[in-house]
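Worked Example 4.2. Consider the chain below.
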Amino acid sequence: MPYPRRPLQPLRSATDWLGAEIRHWRELRNLSPSDLGRAVGLSTDAVEKIEKGDRLCSAEHAGLMDTHLGTGGVLARFQPYAKAEADRRRREADGHGNHLRSTTAGGTLATGRSIKEPSVEHRTLVAASSLSLAAGLTLLPQEQCFGQRLNNADVKHVEETARQLREWGNLHGSSGTIFQNAALSVLQQCVDRASDCPSRLHPQFLAATGRLALTLGSNRFDHFQHEHAQGLFALATTCAEEADDWTLRASVLNWRSRQAIWLDRPDRGLTFAEMGLVRLDRIPPRAQAALQNCRARAYALLGQAKAALAAVEASDHLFTTPWGDEEPAWLAYYDAPQHHGDTGHALRDLAIAGLLPPAPAADRLRTAVAGHPDAYRRSRAMSVSRLATLLLVTGDPQEAMSVAHQALDDVGQVRSRRAAADLSEFATLAAQRRAPGTAAIRQRIAAAVGQ
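Applying the procedure from the previous section yields the following structure tokens:
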């Protein structure tokens, strides 16, 4: 009788994630381990060990698997991260973590001291908070992702790192420590190498660095690591301004506004939004629409219904305004579901405050929920939970409970403290109103939030 197949643990390490991804693509193509092994020159046992995370897949075999499985190159792109992690673990094991170290790091020499080395994340964020791209970072050496001389391929590598992290966050929330640590390592190298960048590449390199810092900052915000997020957002703002990238600057200030509003500082959020809306001739309509949504939410929380509704109207107009081929591809995230979810959030705040009938907000949030695909599971979960709260306060509590259970179906699959906080707010309000089914929903919310 065969042994049951061992479950994979892709979040345990980069090697485990790479193995789980290989199994996913192999099974998607209806291939057995022996089929894949024959195609790429590996034994069945070797393929099975790679999939379980017991053996690192080589760069050569990752490339062959990409070709045979038609993955679009995802395995080869991620393999260096898995190798870097494996090499780092081996070095730590060899040194037992207790030896004195003498190493050149960030232009400084640390010798003869037994110290607790700061994490990559901490060191990078210290640099981000300084707002200086040329600031020396007291970092231990990391696996280098750039060549001796920066070129277009290095810029594309930074852009691809940001894209992969952004897509992971949309699907899984702010989980994925492996991805984030790898991305932080790349960001740190960007900061270190910025002064070495040829002048012809400097704007593109800084813009790519800014997009990566923005993506990491939004993940930190989602995980309520607010100080870290603020440092990364500040770095992204500096990069955008030095690169003269007005669209990126607007997007960063959009996130800074959203964070300030989340932290119950709507006036500060409004300031960030207004800062983002300068030089409108250089900002695509969708980027402007996103900033108008921040204005709408800030005004709603300040109790200024007329101004909030005017901002929503402006956002609606901008969203339908064509921009053309000059609009960056990474702005594609701001689609119809995102637009309806963001404007619906502002209208919901007005409705809960009794300043607007609930129907317009409910209609927009329902449109967002119906339109968000699984690739944007986090956004869908947040729109559903906000709809549930709106219905609980202004509509049918029974329907609100049904909608909340729908939100939990998504929240149970992502790690997002913002999504969890929305549901916790719903649970508190349900208890206050003694809504039917409160005990069951609170139990399920507690299980999801505490996962």
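The longest strand covers residues 108-113. Confidence is low (pLDDT under 50) at residues 1-5, 96-142. Compare this with Example 4.1 before moving on.
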